[in-house]
Amino acid sequence: MTLPSLNLLAQSILSGIFIGALYGLIGLGLGLTWGLLRQINLAHFGLVFLGGYLSYQMTASWKLDPLLALVLVPPLFFAIGVGMQWVLSKFAITPFNSLLVSFGITVVIESGIQGIWTADYRKLESPYNAMKFTVGKLYLPVPELVTLALALAACFGVWAAMRYTDLGKAMRAMAEDGKIAAAFGVNAQTLALVLAGGCAALAGVAGVCLALTFSLTPSQIYAWVGVVFAAVMLGGLGSALGPLAAGVIIGVSEAITMAVASPSWAPIVSFSLLIAMLLLRPAKAGT
Amino acid sequence: MSLTRRRILSATSAAAGALFGLPALAQQAAGAPIRIGSTLALTGPLSATALTHKLVGEIYVEQLNKRGGLLGRPVQWIVKDDQSKPELARTLYEQLITSDKVDLLMGPYATGAILSAMGVAQRYNKVLVHHTFGIPSMAKYDMQFPAWSLGPDPQKTVSNSLFDLMETAKKPPKTIAIVTSKFPSVHFMSLGGREVAKQRGLKEVLFLEWEFGNRDFGPIAARVKDANPDMVWIGDIGLEGNQLLEAMKKIDYTPPIHFHLYPAPGPMTHSPEGANALSVTIFEEQPPFTNSGTAAEFVKTFNERATAAGLPDTHVEVQAAASYSAWQILEAGVRGANSLDDKKIGEWLRKNKVDTIQGRLRFDGPGNYGDDLMKIKQVQGGTWKVIWPTSFASPGASLQVR
Predict the structure, then answer these.
(1) Are the beta carbons of A7 and B215 separated by less than 8 Å?
(2) Angle at CA B325, nearest 5°, toward B320 and B331?
């Protein structure tokens, strides 16, 4: 092992921040549904990729600016999320069963994606791909900066909404004690639909960011599950800022590992951090 | 344009119509069909390439039946989806033999699945012709036959061929960075390349490995840039090489010489970063490969059918050529042995040579491997051109260095 140059280390940390922001953005919706709705929504990953593919389609076929997808995709996904939540609540799905049902939905989404776009790799081509800012010897690619900006905006936006709006307070109350909240007039069913729709919209946003920075292939859905779950567990279920912070920590740790040691060690970073958290502060993990 | 079920059915119907439009030839094949079974990774991480193999198999079986089938009987291909999982491939090959009771086997795609299928074939004493098995030293079954002509020691022979080419450069590289996926067949070759590079006096300035399915190539790109090698050996499969080149571009770095082991060929030519990328091949759509009528006909048919099916890459290169060759080998074995008896087919193949679109193949070396027929190609002007050895080079093509 040789010590990396400062420039290499700094560039790697930047890379880690960027991908960590994506981990956090993907984890935001997952964490909220898990913490507030008590649903482990694996379909979230399928929705993220569906959002990515729709962004690709809009760019490749309809020649739209990929950032326009940020206007078109979230409302569509909000509706999808509401519909999914309505079905789940109709059948009174338990938290464990939500894991199974949502996994099935992911498989269906994967099959649908493959049926439409094939199993081959798809790459969203846009002028943004070649754009970057330089700070000294460090490079800040525009697609990654967009992802970071959106992750920050989404996480802080949700945080502010949960803290300062009546809707957000009602959601927190619902999660804390649904029956007491209902006694004070909180309509849990409606709130659940709104929350599920919002989380699905966030998945759509994450999908746009994914398409901006990565090649797409249906089977890659599962490559993100482990690391994002780790970010959510580390960051805290139902937390708006936790998954982002945890995602960045994981991303930077992975990047430093790749820069200093070997890229093949990177996959163990996220779960090592999670295990460390479970060992050192078990009460904090997932809360 | 995407590959859809409708397109596949449409293409298949058209092919069936063409087949039925040749009653004189079709009637030469009579009786119960000879059933050939295989799996392919029709879903999962390897499915993009497996679709090419599926199309090739369909083309070959159609052509074969037009020529009267095998032993006077039509041929039916039963292909199952192993989902890119070697363990599932094993189960499905068991099923093909014991439940579907196929007459013959054809190999699956990719090293892991082929290894699984090989174990099953050995258990039931079935011939297994396979395409793109990447670790010849693991092919120990005496009735397996490789269609990918990379020789018994490709990690040495292919690497030496590459470095022979490098010595023809105006400024031969003195330093090398080796970065590689740990996908089994890729990793095997990269370790071999690493060893050969040392033997030939290249100074290794960086060696990195990543897990197959790696998400972030940014830090890897940064390390390569920091090391500043004369040449980068990228042990990639699929789009890994493209992803690494894109990550390099984001930090304003382009390696002067970059070799890619098993890239997705289409995306590499389409990407601006892919300019001057080097890779290996056994067949390209150019003379002398297309000098034979069989090869020329196959290229034309594949181009048309791949376009109709919406495949993103419609060219015949390593994967399609190895796949077609596999069918040629199996057909030759059956015809030569004049039998469906696997033992007789195996004996015939080991004692005889088979003419394929790659060239003449033999199976009398270690692990039934023959000669290393790999060539070196480079992306020039947005297309792959063979540049080494010179006897196979595209007219006017030679090594280009940034």
Answers:
(1) no
(2) 135
Residue A1 in this model has a pLDDT that exceeds 80:
no
Beta-carbon contacts of A51 under 8 Å, excluding residues fewer than 6 positions away, are: A69, A73, A77, A203, A204, A205, A206, A207, A208, A210, A211
B213 touches chain A (CB under 8 A): yes
How near does any CA of chain A get to the CA of B225, in Å?
A: 9
Q: Which of A15, A214, A217 sits opposite B48 (nearest CB)?
A: A217
Please tell me the class of the B3-149+289-371 domain. alpha beta
pLDDT tens digit string along A105-163?
999 999 899 888 877 778 898 889 889 999 999 999 999 999 999 999 999 999 999 99
Which tokens go with A241?
């800022």
pLDDT of residue B204: 98
For residues B247 and B217, the answer to whether their CB atoms sit within 8 Å is yes
Predicted interface score ipTM higher than 0.95: no
Q: Report how far residue B369's alpha carbon sits from residue A77's, in angstroms, rounded to the nearest whole number.
A: 54
Q: Which of B2, B204, B245 to mutate to test the interface with A (most CBs of A within 10 A)?
A: B2
**Domain boundaries of chain B, sorted by first residue:** 3-149+289-371, 154-281+376-392
Q: Is B154-281+376-392 in the same CATH topology as B3-149+289-371?
A: yes
